[in-house]
Amino acid sequence: MIEVKDITKKFGRKQVLKGVTFTAEKGEITCLIGINGVGKTTILNAIMALTPIKTGEILIDGEKLKPATFNHITFIPDAITVLPQMTIEESMQFMKDYYGTWNDDRAQELLSFFKLKPEEKISSLSKGNTAKANLLLGLALDVDYILMDEPFSGIDMFSREQIADVFTSHLIEDRGVIITTHEIGDIEHLIDKVVLLDDGVVKKQFYTEEIRAAEGKSVIDVMREEYKS
Amino acid sequence: MKINFNRREPVYVQVIRYFKQQIATNMFEPGQEIPSRRELAGEIKINPNTVQRAYKEMEEQGLIYTEGNLPSKITQDEQVLKAVREELIMDAVDEFVATVQPVHAPFEEIITLLQEKYEQAIEGKGDEQ
Fold first, then answer.
1. Do B47 and B73 fall into the same domain?
2. Which 3 state secondary structure label does DSSP give A48?
3. CATH class for domain A2-228?
4. What is the pLDDT of residues A127-173, one digit of tens each?
5. H/E run at residue A16
């Protein structure tokens, strides 16, 4: 389980996170939702210790963040970070050299799942295929938790559908996923849990099936209520 | 397999209803293997945990059964199958009554219309075959 406990963060004088608390379980897909600039990416960066937090605590499986933690968790940013002149194959090799948790079999499976050609250069890929290559490089690692920043942002419908299919496939297995988005429509039925963020705090967190059962509301209904008030 | 999901109702409930409809209309036959959790999740594009919950519930209701590590199967229990069929008809009738009753049309008129439409539906199906 990833536990984010009352974390705060300031950029200069701007208080971006004002005490954010939520949990994300293994075997579940937790979705951080909020309009842009609400601090979603900052939270993911904080979990990866890429940005220091001012106060609060982050625990992974009950333990504080330490170098070994990052053998169990990976962060897939919203843009690909390997060099654009590399081919997909070269970027896979790069990841393999760099990360001990690289899983060749899963990488090959992801390659065919996304219908990507290993000899193609990253710089020559369409936006949709760049997003898929980016996901491949992260998902191929044998880690327990995967953080994904806006994997659906700015790509065509068919690529979005193909990426959404990953979430129902065995490629995710029973790993824990945190995904950020400002567009819930595509993935409403794929996620377990929603964490609604606004103005640096968690407005509400809930299981999607529970909110449907208990209140007869869709995720979008809840968002409308929370963001209007 | 295609399910049009209502966004305001638990998805697992809708999956169970879909299975009941398929069982009642013989699209799923008694003893037939059903897809694994992942297979169904991929096919209808929903969370595998939700499929898991639907399967667990269906197992408890006796709609499906699992032997050892084999794939789950549709029940062959006549009583359960009969109950599923009855439940489906009853739900449809309840819905029909709830829609039609507030119009206050004479009952005989409704029955005549129902009979006509029902016969048309059967004939329509006959033409297709």
1. yes
2. coil
3. alpha beta
4. 999 999 999 999 999 999 999 999 998 899 999 999 999 999 989 98
5. strand A14-24
Which pair of structure tokens corresponds to residue B105?
A: 């049309």
Is the Cβ of B45 closer than 8 Å to some Cβ of chain A?
Answer: yes
Pick among A30, A166, A168 to test the B interface (most B CBs inside 10 A): A168
ipTM: 0.89
Range of the domain at B95: 89-128
pLDDT digits (tens, 9 = 90+) for A165-205: 999 998 998 899 999 988 888 899 999 999 999 989 999 99
Looking at the structure, do residues B70 and B93 belong to the same domain, yes or no? no
A21 close to A10: Cβ distance less than 8 angstroms: no
Q: Does B56 touch chain A (CB under 8 A)?
A: no
pLDDT at B126: 63
Partners of residue B12 in chain A, C-beta under 8 Å: 209
Q: Which helix (H) or strand (E) holds A73?
A: strand A73-76
Q: Do B74 and B16 fall into the same domain?
A: yes
Does residue B105 sit in the same domain as residue B72? no
